[in-house]
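Translate structure to sequence.
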């Protein structure tokens, strides 16, 4: 009786109380479940051209309990699949309901296996990633793995959107694993991944990659990059690197070739960084396009001699000519006038030293001094683009702010995301980050950059009917005969619709200057790009302005010891601008000094109590006056805001201070004539 009661209780527990649990266990034992892989979302260019697609592919599946001759089966599969026989044998003899033998095989292999009609060997359909354009945009697209997961590039950064959610299929089988006819079958369809539309235009991408291929054929260099951007939206229209790889067979290439140099690698920008120095100087009012400078070929900074790229220097020049000539000593003086705190503020505002957040894996921040690390020499070298490292995407984003009127925009590669049935899921709109300079300053910088193309190192960029502004950059590897050469330009210069950057890394062949290497590449790219984008040429003016407006020369009034309101009134009357240093109402000092003759529109810096020490920033480089007559030397001194004392007559044979030294505006330069 006790045993009977115990059995009745136990049966009740199993059959009634735990009924659901044991039903699920029984079902699980006789249901064989296979994952149904979702179709990975497509990647299109901005016009709907397919760049990455998912095609159907057969995967070989083994059902171990149904295989009658495992050794013979393994041998036959090994011959067709070109895989190790022992490895296949281990797989098909596992204690499992079903196992993968080989995934995503080609059609020829699948046909051969089907013809063998091997017991226990079946197929399931999966999707295989295919890139119909081959190497085109490979560094952007990246690639995905056999398990439908993104491994590189946009395939990785947008993996959550592209991969979808897997489904499942369940088939009922008997105790020895055989499928039960008319048994339970369960199917849950997968959710396919979303489709992504890029900002990239495949035609512009092709143009960029074509020119890079030609460049690396003509020149001996390690690599090259071209980036094209719409400065008004932040959209990247093309991003190309060479050498490249084929994402359809990515495993056959060195992993080093998978890197997207435009986002992940840094380089020294050289003179292209002078665009940032120019923007900061004009915005802060420490320089005016007509301000006069003198370049004797070098400048002394904290005991160090910094040379100009041109032997003997550029002599007397306006700031507009300093930009046009890419004169290093001139830019050193702008950096000194700004001061490290102010200059650093602009460098950070333009986005250097931080990621652009372009939503691409492996983005680099660039290399930048911290503020305490910047001394007089570091400040001087940064001003002309040496001693800092940037990524191409950082530089083109910063320069696009100059092109669009001063607004820094977040760059982006994806235009919109849509579901498989075309429903809009997300649209990426232009994303302003911050205003870095005024529209007036941006316009002036663009005008100065036009001078580089019209009369400076960017002349080979000229394109009939289009006004282009741009800047070259040449930076030598330290201790090596290798160069990074680059050119960044915008057009039309008055209202840019396109900004493009060309960088050639590790150039070892001759010629090695940006004007001879990067500029012709840029010209070839934009020549085709403007036609494709249908950017209209500039209409010629009916009346040519043969004579430029004459620059009026004015004498700086003495405003020392005057109140700010009276000083501003006197300076405004002469057509001069004002910049304030310090706080207060009574002016302690001024630069330029009283009675100095300057161009109308120049800036006069007014110092208040406690700010007199800042006057040291606004020093002037002493020109080389040897061989000049007094009248010629006096004119140059007047342009620079310096004064002249002389002894003797004839030509100048000696001067004090010597050329290259920096002195205060208004100081006397003594010369001896013979």
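Result:
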């Amino acid at each position: 009786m006790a045993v009977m009661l115990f059995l009745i209780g136990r049966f009740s527990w199993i059959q009634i109380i735990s009924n659901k649990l044991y039903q699920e266990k029984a079902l699980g034992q006789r249901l064989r479940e296979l994952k149904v892989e979702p179709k990975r979302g497509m990647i299109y260019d901005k016009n709907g051209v397919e760049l990455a697609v998912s095609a159907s592919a057969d995967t070989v599946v083994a059902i171990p309990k149904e295989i009658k001759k495992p050794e013979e089966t393994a041998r036959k599969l090994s011959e067709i699949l070109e895989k190790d026989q022992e490895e296949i044998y281990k797989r098909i003899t596992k204690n499992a309901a079903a196992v993968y033998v080989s995934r995503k095989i080609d059609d020829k292999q699948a046909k051969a296996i089907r013809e063998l009609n091997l017991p226990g060997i079946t197929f399931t359909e999966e999707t295989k990633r295919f890139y119909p354009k081959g190497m085109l945009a490979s560094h952007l697209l990246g690639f995905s793995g056999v398990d439908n997961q993104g491994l590189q590039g946009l395939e990785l950064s947008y993996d959550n959107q592209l991969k979808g959610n897997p489904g499942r299929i369940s088939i009922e089988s008997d105790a020895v694993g055989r499928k039960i006819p008319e048994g339970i079958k369960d199917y849950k369809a997968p959710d396919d991944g979303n489709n992504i539309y890029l900002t990239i235009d495949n035609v512009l991408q092709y143009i960029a990659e074509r020119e890079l291929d030609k460049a690396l054929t003509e020149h001996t260099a390690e690599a090259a990059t071209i980036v094209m951007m719409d400065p008004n939206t932040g959209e990247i229209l093309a991003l190309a690197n060479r050498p490249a790889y084929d994402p359809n067979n990515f495993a056959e290439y060195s992993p080093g070739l998978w890197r997207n140099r435009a986002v992940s690698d840094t380089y020294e920008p050289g003179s292209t960084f002078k665009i940032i120095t120019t923007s900061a100087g004009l915005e802060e009012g420490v320089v005016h396009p007509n301000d006069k400078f003198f370049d004797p070929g070098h400048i002394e900074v904290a005991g160090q001699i910094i040379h100009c790229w041109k032997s003997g220097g550029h002599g007397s020049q306006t700031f507009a000519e300093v930009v046009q000539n890419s004169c290093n000593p001139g830019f050193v003086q702008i950096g000194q006038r700004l001061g490290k705190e102010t200059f650093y503020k602009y460098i950070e505002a333009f986005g250097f030293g931080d990621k652009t957040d372009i939503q691409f894996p492996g983005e680099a921040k660039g290399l930048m001094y911290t503020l305490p690390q910047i001394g007089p020499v570091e400040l001087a070298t940064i001003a002309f683009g040496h001693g800092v490292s940037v990524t191409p995407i950082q530089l083109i984003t910063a320069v696009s702010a100059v092109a669009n009127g001063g607004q820094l925009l977040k760059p982006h590669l994806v235009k919109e995301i849509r579901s498989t049935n075309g429903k809009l899921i997300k649209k990426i709109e232009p994303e302003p980050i911050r205003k870095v300079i005024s529209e007036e300053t941006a316009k002036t910088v663009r005008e100065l950059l036009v001078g580089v193309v019209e009369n400076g190192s960017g002349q080979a960029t000229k394109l009939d009917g289009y006004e282009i502004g741009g800047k070259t950059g040449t930076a030598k590897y330290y201790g090596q005969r290798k160069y990074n050469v680059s050119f960044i330009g915008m057009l039309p210069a008055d209202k840019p619709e396109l900004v493009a950057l060309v960088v050639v890394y590790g150039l070892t062949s001759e010629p090695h200057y940006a004007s001879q290497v990067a500029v012709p590449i840029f010209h070839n790219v934009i020549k085709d790009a403007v036609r494709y984008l249908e950017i209209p040429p500039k209409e010629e003016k009916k009346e040519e302005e043969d004579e430029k407006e004459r620059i009026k020369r004015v004498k700086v009034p003495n405003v020392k010891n005057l109140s700010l309101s009276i000083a501003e009134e006197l300076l405004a009357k002469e057509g001069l601008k004002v910049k304030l240093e310090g706080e207060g109402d009574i002016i302690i000092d001024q630069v330029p000094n009283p009675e100095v003759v300057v161009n109308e529109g120049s800036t006069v810096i007014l110092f208040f109590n406690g700010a007199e020490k800042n006057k040291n920033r606004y020093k002037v480089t002493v020109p080389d006056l040897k061989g000049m007559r007094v009248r010629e030397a006096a004119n140059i001194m007047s342009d620079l805001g310096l004064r002249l004392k002389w002894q003797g007559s004839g030509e100048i044979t000696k001067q004090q201070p010597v050329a290259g030294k920096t002195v205060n505006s208004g100081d006397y330069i003594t010369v001896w004539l013979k």
